[in-house]
Protein: Probable membrane transporter protein
Organism: Hyphococcus aureus
Amino acid sequence: MQLYLPIAEMPVDPFVVITMGAAVGFLSGMFGVGGGFLMTPLLIFYGIPPAVAVGTEASQIVASSVSGALAHLKRKTIDFQMGGFLVAGGAIGSIIGVLVFRMLIKTGQIDTLISVSYVIFLSLIGGLMLWESIRTLLHSTEEKQKHARKRRSPAWLAALPFAMRFRASALYISPIAPIALGFIVGLLASMLGVGGGFIMVPAMLYILNMPTNVVVGTSLFQIIFVTAITTVLHAAANQTVDIALALLLLSGGVVGAQLGVRVGVKLKAEHLRALLALLVLGVCARLLIDLALPPASFFIVDGL
């Protein structure tokens, strides 16, 4: 059975798309990421135009993140105060990102730029996360506990203006840092169709030094609002949100996210980071191969 997508202007197998949504939703709940860094490349691999994949994926991330965040809300593992500052920065980043995205569409180079950007960001983030995970796993328990105590209250963040106490995260830092981090993630969300969790989670752990138990839930909380803003802006400014495709992804993503949360709480944080790093590097390798291979057919434009 085939379903025609009006914005993407192509037929798809709905069962394949639903399965893709469920698989990425599962990973979203397990790792605390929106899943866009996996779903957007998967949609591109499936043949969806990159601009439509970016715009539509943001809506799927909203639903899967809501599902995952509700599960963490029951466990009281969300720092709403920290999440509020992350959302504030993310909203500003999303607005600027959508405007830049619109300009790039007019140049005709948006498809290549999306693929190249994914290769760069995924290789950097995946490599750093894998290195840190391996190093952490090799340390003894005493060393890890000592390291965690030492990093819990970073002096340079507290030295920034307007420092305040984040009780759920047991931190005393300036909100400038989470606002700036949210801005970067909002920019990436609007330009690459990602929730930003693959950057947000390690940044919250290693830059903001938040405790692991609230990182995943807080990440999903901010992803909900940032991707919702991005979806509305892309639909209004660029007309790249395909509702039919989004509904298929949502139907699978919500169920998958709930299952992912149940599996994720049973794994150690170090193991979760290592698995996420391997997934990021795997997607990066596939995108790099696609960029390196010659196209199946060549096009010649006459009459210029």
